[in-house]
Every structure is written in structure tokens, then in C-alpha cells.
## 1
Amino acid sequence: MAIQSVRGMPDILPEQAGAWRYLEQQAQQIFDAYGLTQIRTPMVEDTALFARSIGDVTDIVEKEMYTFEDRSGDSLTLRPELTAGVVRAAIENGLLHNQTQRLWYQGPAFRHERPQKGRYRQFHQIGVECFGIADARMDAELIEITDQLWKQLGIRHAVGLELNSIGSPEARAHYRAALVDFLSSRKDQLDEDSQSRLDRSPLRILDSKIDSTQALLVDAPSLMDSLTKEDREHFTALTSSLEEAGIEFKINPRLVRGLDYYGRTVFEWTTQKLGAQGTICGGGRYDGLVEHLGGRSTPGVGFALGMERVVLLMESLDVVPDMYQNQANIYLMPQQSECESVIRELARTLRTHFPKLRVLTHIGGGSLKSQLKKADKSGAAIGLIIGHTELESGHIVYKPLRGGEQEMLTEAALINRISELKDA
Ligand code: ATP
Ligand code: MG
């Protein structure tokens, strides 16, 4: 029996990889335009890092982590998200001393969840973390970055922004008491998970995906009413910044997010098109996290998007440009072995002239008919053929593979013709 991939850890096959590359390239372009710099941290961290940052009483830490003991007996964990590692690295390497940092990252994360469409055990995130800036305009700029990315990808019309403030620790303590008070008298109507959270982590009940629990919460006190004056000012500054930038949002007073380190701003981008896994991106402010992890008190704000979900959305909306889906633009076919070196030299010339085009040379001989079949399958729009006749006359057969007249061209004329292609 052949060995299979690990459940919930799918391969990204060539036919999907184009969409992934498109997403990565668009994101990197936008991050560059906003002056962010990249950070790459290890996939494995000390287990204590996640327990301390994400929080002990979270789904992630309680049920979802891949934790193991290595050969030295150390407890290590495959990162379930990337923020904790980025904060650790920033503290450890002195990136936060007397300076601000606007960082982006990309890479796999691991959670032992029930695999389904849009939910996997190895998945990938692209994210941004910004340190040293407490101003709500930074929160707004991060949201603007995501808004730009959706626009650039052509999926903006299919996603919406939800926003909330979960306030400062004092506000949350105040609200926590009010919520526990409200829910305690209705405990028997709560789902089992939420019942057990009532004592340990009542705010997380707001995040419950159980309909009956959500129905019960309709009349619950609102977090907004517990916010301090400073919390409110921060939130108002954020919403006015977003209005200025022309970014529509919906305030969702029950949005809390599943990680412990957030305070004040939280936001999510959601879509109706992916069923239950509709959140493609989530983020928020975490002003206490750096200090909590042993650094000097430093404000922070960030977001992470789930690449699988964004790619699923891009595919369902059919927005991936052709050039990311095809293997080739031009397919060169030598008809006899004497033409091999000439055709390979021509391919090199074309690659130098047209660095954006994918130039594939046929290797392995065969009849013209079989070569043309392979050319067609490659997705190329143009076939170039050199045989005895062309070798002698110094011409190249230019054969449009998707309709159009075949021509005989000199190399100079060929280069001219190709520069007219839309992808060149
Ligand atoms: P959900 O509520 O869907 O479980 P989450 O709140 O656990 O998401 P975050 O920890 O905020 O998610 O991660 C940020 C983003 O990463 C999510 O919005 C989602 O797009 C993606 N994501 C999270 N978990 C998974 C997973 N198991 N498989 C694929 N994508 C995921
Ligand atoms: Mg989750």
C-alpha cells in the first residue's frame, strides 16, 4: 500500500499553485507599497509560548495543538498561528527598543481540528504585525491594507468587514461580571461547551457557533456599554479613519475572536460564499501581549488571513488571471535532431527578451503531430517550429495554437510579433 498524506494536510497541486502564487504576489506588492518588512520565524516553538500568549482556556491551546517531546525531552509545538512567534522574535532580537516595526509574514500553521472544506490541520496564513503604535489610525491602515488586497484580487465585492471593540482589561472585567450575571440564570439553556466556559472564560461564549446559544445572547448586555472613555475614543478614531478611507464596515458587538491577547479593536472579514468557514481574515489590537511575553510594554496590532479560504474564494469567483494558470506561453518544437541546438538557443533569446513569458522547449523528439498535441496541452498560445527548411532559410514557423494564420518569420520579426502579445 502506498503511503498517504496526513489527514487534514493536503498537497497544493500544480493546478492550484497558480492561484496561491497570485495571492502571494499581490499581497507582497501591497505590503511593499505600505512600507512593511518581512519576518520569517520557525515553525516550531517552545510549547509555553503558545500557552502563555494565546491563553490556556482557548480551543487552540486546549484541543488543537500539535505538541510533542523532542529527543532532548523539551516540549515543542508546531505553531498554531504566527503572531506569538513574531512577538517572541521581536523581543528576543531587540526589534522593539526605541523603534516601531511594521512586519509581515507568511507560512504554514497547524491545528488538530476536524478537517472540512476551508478547515485543515496544516493551513497557511499571511499576516501583518505592527509594534509601537497605539494610535487607532494604525488599526485603520491595517484594515486598509486588507481592503486593498481584496480589491487587487477582485474579491472585494464578495467580502464584508465586521468590527468591534472589546475594550481595555478593566472594561472587560466589568463586562465579564455583567455577562456572567446574565448567563448564570440561563445556564441550562447554554450548550455544553459554553456552560463549561461560564466560569473560566465567559467572553468566549460570545464566539460560540451554536445557534441556540447565539439566540440566547441577543438580549445579553453589550460589551460596548462597558467600554471606558479611552476605549470609546480609540474606537471612534478608528471608525472615522475608516470612513475617511471610504471603507464600509458593520459593527458587530458580539465579535470577540478566539485568542486571549486581544484588547480594543477586533475585526473580521467574512464571506457568504464558503459556508461555515466564512471568515477569511481576522485581526485586532494586542497592547498587552509584548509585556505579557516578557518584553517592555509595547502596543501591537495585526491581522492574519487564511490562504486556503482566500484561494477557495478566488476560485469560486474565477478571478485568477490566465497567466497564473498556464504552464506555458510559447512552445518550441525542433523537427529534427539538427534543429535541437538552434531551437534551444532561440528559447534562450526569447527568455532574455521576454522575462515574463513562459517559454517551454519540446524535448524527446517525436512526430510534428505528437509535438503539437503536447504544445496544446501546455496551454501555450504560440507554437514555434524549426525543421530542415527553416534551418536553411533562417526562418521560424510561427503557429498560433488558439486560432490564427501560420507564418514564416525571421528572428527579428518573431521578436516583434511576440512583443505584441498581451502577456509579454
Ligand atoms: P475559525 O473561527 O474559522 O476557527 P479562528 O478564529 O480560529 O477561525 P484565527 O486564529 O483568527 O482563526 O486565524 C486567522 C485566519 O486563519 C482565519 O480567519 C481563517 O481564515 C484561517 N484559519 C484558521 N484556522 C484554520 C484552519 N484550521 N484551516 C484553514 N484556515 C484556518
Ligand atoms: Mg478556530
## 2
Amino acid sequence: MVAPPADTGSRPTVWVLGDQLNPDIASLAGRSPADCRVLFVESRAKLESKPWHVQRAHLVISAMAHFADELNARGYEVDYRRAPTLAEGLRAHREQFDVRRVIAMEPMSWDGRAMLSRLGVETVANNQFLCSHEEFAAWAADRRSLRMEDFYRWQRSRLGILMDGGEPAGGRWNFDVENREPPPTDGRSWPEITRFPLDAIDREVIGRLPESWGNAPDGTWPVTRRQARHRLREFVESGLGPFGPHEDAMLAAEWKLAHSGLSSSLNLGLLTPDEVVEAAEAAYRAGAVPINSAEGFIRQVLGWREYVWGMYWHNMPAYRDLNRLDAHRPLPPVFTGEAPTQMACVASVVAHVHEHAYAHHIERLMVLGNLALTAGVDPQAMTRWMWASFVDGAEWVMVPNVIGMALHADAGLMATKPYASGGAYINRMSDHCAGCRYNPRKRTGEDACPFTTLYWDFLARNEEALAANHRMSRQLAGMRRLSDLDEVRARAAEVCVALDNGTL
Ligand code: SF4
């Protein structure tokens, strides 16, 4: 970047944060190169704050550098700084340009918002979501429980998405039943995605990243809005149709099946949720995809994603520290690649994470999350690991998804019951069990599936905490009827030791 000349600061600075990479963000919208300069700060402290997957670290920095380049080409004066901390970068910028006003769009994190306030940065409301904090708070205000399904229907109605007048398109709000097909085992091919060739900026970023882990960046993740738009078109044309029925399926040889690969682009601001949702609805209206596929995908973006965002702000700062099931097991070394595993499903998903910094939602929830939940892994350790390991990770994403959804550490603020299951679910929804050393139907013995053993142990261990939850009464009654419960619990203790030692 060409160093801009110093001047006396009558023009404000717009500070663009690393997950706000879109010319239409609220702090830039309506501005021109004549009325502001733009600041980017790459923080060394942030880069060193976690053991980031190399593709995650590369994506954020490369996307920032590409967006800075794009604004520069549009005529903006851009100050792109590498600094020990964000605050230090801002201080140096203010000093060089004698800036009186610095404006930013509200950050996506609790700590980021506090920091900008401390530093005297003016903020404007974040426009990267369809439901603002205030709207979510108003929706939540008089409700006893904040169910995603209720929020999603409210979003669709008030925004008029996938609606026919006052009724949901296709006559129903929810097509989940059609969207739970087990994986096809006919060897079919799944939609290809474009790998974007690495350019000079990508290579420069790779060359200066600190040593990290995971497979090297290979152009899988869009680093510009143009690439992200390409990925969106590609998904709507070839992925959206098969996405619906197979969204919960898992295959060892297929890391994404028909999933969109759009979450990192949405979370960095390269795409906006309205354009993504509109593209999916347009494909349905044109008769190109069935309603269950369009609805299933729109549910993810308009429902789950916006709900997670709302729940984060509604429950922070206490949310990130919750541990209502009192779980304290350290992160299993198999997750970090420090140990191998004979659990075929876990080995497959961990390999996907290492290769792509990605695993799809069921792999995250029902394999990684389920194992962590039933083994009693510390929710904060799990949150930190997932945040650092996934290409779409952020605190607002991972706190509700891990602490709330996967590990039930919020005592049911998000999920009405824990997402705990034995090997039967994974056996039904994947092709992993056929080639596994363990048997999903067995709960005791050397070859018992660890998921099956730990599931029953989880219920027994947390019986008191779950007893008041009427949605758990059937499972708890089943656990109480087990004639071999003592044996199961003894095997669970062995499984946990092996999990800790990396010998499972
Ligand atoms: Fe996973 Fe158990 Fe199936 Fe093995 S048997 S793949 S550990 S669910």
C-alpha cells in the first residue's frame, strides 16, 4: 500500500475491522474517497492470541488486504497498518494524520465493542445482519423461552421471505422431515466448487504468517467479494437442490457434500445475508429447486445464523463463562491432531478440519460436539478450539453454538434438550460405522462404540440436572431400566481415560 501523505485531520477516518469487508457496511455506505480516509489494522496480538488453523489466519488477513486494495483502487486513501495491537495501530494512525474523528461500524464481539468505546471511536449500527440487537431484544422481551423456530417464523413473516401472502411458501414452515435423508451410497458425485487461484496478495500473506497447523491455503475460501459472489452463484446452480435432503448426512470421502461453503464469506461481510437468502428464494420461485431445499437453506441463514447472533448479544457477557453441567475434562488430544483415534467418524471429521478448516453442521454437532458433551469436555476449552479451528469461527458464532447448542452448558437457553446421542444416530446418518473398529450397537466391552457407552453414562452422570426437563424423561427412563448400567459406567470411565490419553 502506498503510504498516504500526512495532513491535518479535517476528514474523518473510517476504521474497517477484519470481519466487515464490504463497501456497503454502514460506516462506508454513502461515503466517497473525498470525504474520508480508511484505516485497517492487522494486530499481531490477535494473530498470536490463538492457535489458528493456517487457512483461517490466511483468510482473514488476505481478505482484509484484498479489500484494502479494492478501496485503494476506488480512490480511497487507505492506511493499512500492521501493529502490535489494534489500539496501538489506531494510536499510530491518529498521530500520523492528526485525526479528530474515527468512525467504525459496531464490532461483532463484546470485547471489540468495549475496546472501541474505550478508544473514543464513534460507532454506527452494524448492518451485516437482518435482525439488529434491538430488534432481537424486542422479540425476546416478553417470551419465557427463546426458541429458534419461533424466531425464524417471525423473521420470515416480518421480512416477507419465502411467504405467499401471510402463509409460508409450500404450505408449511418446516421441511426438516424431508431434509434428513441418510447419505446415498450409490457413489454419486457431489457439486464441485471452484478453487480460486492464489494471487500475489495471498502469497505475500502466506509468507509472513506465524507457524501454524492445518493444510496450507489452497484457494477454497473466497477472499474477495467477487469470489464470494461466484461461490454463491455456483451453490445456487448446483448445490442448493441436493443440499436440502442431504444436509444432515455424513460421508467419509466427502468433506462438504452439497453444503454451500458460504459461511466464512457471510461472517467476514464478503456476502450479505439478504443477497444470499434472495438468491435461494429466487431459485425456488423459478422452479429450479424444491421447496424443502430452499427452506432448509434459508432456515440456516435467516433462522439459525441470525438467532445465534441475537442470542450472543442477548446473553453476553455471562454467556461465554457458563458451565451448567460442571464439565471440566480437557480438550481431547485427538481433536488437535496430537493423537490418532480408531473412532472412524471422529477421525474423518478431524481430518476434514485439518484439511479444510471446516466440517459441516452435523459433523460439528453430532460428532465433535456430541463426543465433547457426553465425555464432559470443558465448554470454554471446546469453544476456544472451535473458534481457532474453523474458517468461519468467531466468538459470536462459537459461544452460542458450543456453549449453548452443542454442550448444553447454558442449561437450555438455546436448546430445549441436550444433543446427546449414541452411535445409532451416526450409524444411520453416515457411512463411518461399517469400517470402524467399534460397534455402534454395543455399550460395554472392548469393541463398544464410545458414543453409545458415553451416551448412557452422560444420562446417569447428569440425571439430577436433567430430571426437570420433560423432554428428557424418556431417555432417563431408558437409562434407569438398563440392567448393565454399572458395567456401562465402568466402561465409560475406561473410555474417558483412553480419550484423555489419546488411545481411543
Ligand atoms: Fe463412530 Fe461409534 Fe460408528 Fe465407530 S461405531 S464410527 S465410533 S459411531
